[in-house]
Amino acid sequence: AELRRLALSSAPRRFLSSSGMSRSSSIRGARMMSKSASRTMSTLPEKLAAIGECRWDDEKMKAALDSGVYQRFREANKSGADLDKADKKAIAKALFEWATGLGAVNFAHWFSPVRSGAPVGLGGSYGMKHDTMIDLDFGSSEALKPITVELPYDRVFVGETDGSSFPNGGLRQTHTAAGFTAWDRTSPPIVRGETLYIPTAFVSHYGAALDEKTPLLRSQAAISKWGVKLLKAIGYQSDSEQVFSNVGWEQEFFVIDKEQFLARPDLRHTGRALIGLKPARNQQTDLNYFNLIPPRVKAFLEDCQGELLRCGVALAVYHNEVAPGQHEVSPIFSLTNVATDQNELCLEIMSDVAAAHGLVVLNHEKPFAGINGNGKHLNWGLNSETGKNLFVTGKTPEAQASFMTFVAALAWGLANYGDIVRTGVASAGNDHRLGAQEAPPAIISLYTGLGAEEKIDAIIAGGPLDGYGGEDRTIASGCNSVGPIGTRAEDRNRTAPFPFCGNRFELRACGSSQNIGFPLACVNTIMAAGCKHIVEMIEGGLSVRDAVAKTYEESRNVIFNGNGYSDEWPIEAEKRGLQNLRTTVAAVEQFAADKNKAIFSDMEVFTPEETEARQEIMFEQYVNAITCEATTLVEMMETGLIPAAAQDLARYAGSSLAGKRPEIYEAIAAKTAALEAVLAAVPHDSAHGAARYCLETVVPAMAECREAADAAESKMAADLYPFPTYTDVLLGHHADASPPAEF
Fold first, then answer.
1. Rounded distance, CA 256 to CA 350, Å?
2. What residues contact 454, with CB distance under 8 A and at least 6 apart?
3. Average confidence (pLDDT) over 621-635
4. What number of H helices and E strands is found in the chain?
5. Which helix (DSSP H) or strand (DSSP E) does residue 378 occupy?
6. 85-101 and 67-79 helices cross at what angle (nearest 10)?
7. Closest among 234, 28, 88, 69 to 741, alpha carbons compared
8. 532-548 burial, b if ≥16 CB within 10 A, otherwise e?
9. What is the mean pLDDT of residues 143-147?
């Protein structure tokens, strides 16, 4: 009883239900009671027994549908063909029965507009509207038609909405506004709360992509087309009719107390602390990484894990990250389009669950200056239809030759279209991370490992494609109680933007708030282009060995296995002809280059018009992010810090103890006025011009204003400083208890 009293008294009261249990624990308890009858024979914990119960996966579909309907649905997914009305009705009926059995009242087309991620804890960037599962009985002879309860089959597969109210780069206008959502039939629907989520693509009246998913699906088709052609050209896995791209994402984020969040306008508006000094103890002791998770955050993560598992997300890991208040979750890999949906679902669930715990999730790439920011590492790979991982070296000469061939295709894609991949991870938030000794530089290169690099040079010199990998490698710890440790052939390089990780390549440059569909579409596109390049050389008469050797020779400059954080690398990269696009604006300026429009068009991922529209959107998003930050900073100075500075200075009237406070506080006012002036002068004639102005004029003015504000914080009386400090925000919730679930 005393233990219970202590636990409940130390937990914030606003997060408890009337029974004394946390809101999330009450939910868990209700679920366990409602399912107790069906779980009595199971020895698995509730979370594990409930995996996938809210996802309408292939197994559930197969069990619910007539075998003919099921088979025609599967075949249509491969061919892109439509289904007839009878099959659509059968699928809608089965989906309705399953979803309502889980309590669904509504359905929603769940789509991905081209808008910035939500760095402020509002979930991801996906859109939806909730439609009740009802219709009118149009077969009735009555003028006033009765209401029927059903899932209208036609609205399951296709919906219509306003395309002009979402970012579109000129592809839609108010007078030409139609946008259509259509079910991505390879991504399983899920039920959350009372709504059935149906993952969809989003296109204009003329079929132009208005979303992140459509280009991703097109890029998956390009990977499959040219991956299959390459397999057949080299005579390996030639019975495969499809090649799949997959990814496992690692989502980094900060968790902070809701009250601290609400007290900082910068976090509320931008997801980033625009002013503030880092704590005396931050991450320099390395105590946070993989350490014990604070109790309140642990309860939050446990509930997130349960919700994600129920929705069929194979969440495998959660842990503390490097910075205080920073954490990471990651699932087992999936198809790139499904993984993209699941990542957005994860952001949504984390936001909802955090609210129940009185917490807020920050997904911004750099919420706190001077402390590690958030990335979203994308562990990307390829599989043949027969299940062969194309980035595993294998033990046979054929498998090893295939591995070297597909790595050559990737190298060629990066060497020729690295600017596309760089733009795929570009954002105002990510500008704070890339090249900042916590994330890869803005130079796109490929880490193969030293052994693979040696093999590549041997191939260029005339050597065979096989012979790399295949051996079982172990290391010894020097301790008799520890057995041999199996390890991969190459070391890990955390400074590379695209390192090899034994069975996949990891795009480490993606920002944490991003929808991963766009960067994955970029990677898939350049990979498909590399496959095509090799295929065409083989079809042109070169042997497989010579075609791969020539490809490596053409791409040798992009392979770098050294320290990407070193001062020497940018100099060396320039000598190699690699671009160093340090800012979002510089990267986006390259995106619609003629060569990029040509390759996107050739791979059927973006039309030239869509490429230009995407560029326009990215410029607009950059301007919006910077001007929102600058406006918020001016507001914080004018209504918070400057008045506090005046009060603080008044306390020293008549004494000599003020020191440098007068000049420091005067600098705040001067720098704020300067920022306000440059903000008022942002041009409006073009998004590109405005983005360039924000980069070159507004961002430096913000930095000067921040420098003045942080100097003031170091002098101001603690009781007068108007905002929670970094110490309050990052560490304040770490001592909060959360009652164990059994309470």
1. 12
2. none
3. 97
4. 26, 17
5. strand 376-384
6. 110
7. 28
8. bbbbebbeeebebbebb
9. 95
Residue 201 pLDDT: 97
pLDDT grade for 132, boundaries at 50, 70 and 90:
very high
Q: What whole-number distance in Å separates Cα of residue 497 and Cα of residue 268? A: 31
E strands, 237-325, where?
A: 243-257, 315-320
- Of the CA atoms within 13 Å of residue 529, those in its CB half-sphere come to 27
Give the pLDDT of residue 437.
Answer: 67
For residue 608, give the amino acid letter: P
pLDDT of residue 125: 87
CA distances to 120, 276, 305, 645, 659 from 718, in Å? 26, 13, 39, 11, 17
Residue with tokens 């599962």: 133
- CB-based contacts of 523, cutoff 8 Å, min separation 6: 245, 378, 380, 421, 424, 507
pLDDT in tens, 457-516: 999 999 999 999 877 788 998 998 999 998 888 988 989 999 999 999 999 999 999 999
Instruction: Report the C-alpha gap between 179 and 168 in whole angstroms.
Output: 11
Which tokens is 743 given? 């309470």
Instruction: Name the E strands within 398-483.
Output: 473-475
Residue of 459, 534, 530 lying closest to 233 (CA atoms): 534
Neighbours of 458 (CB within 10 A): 15
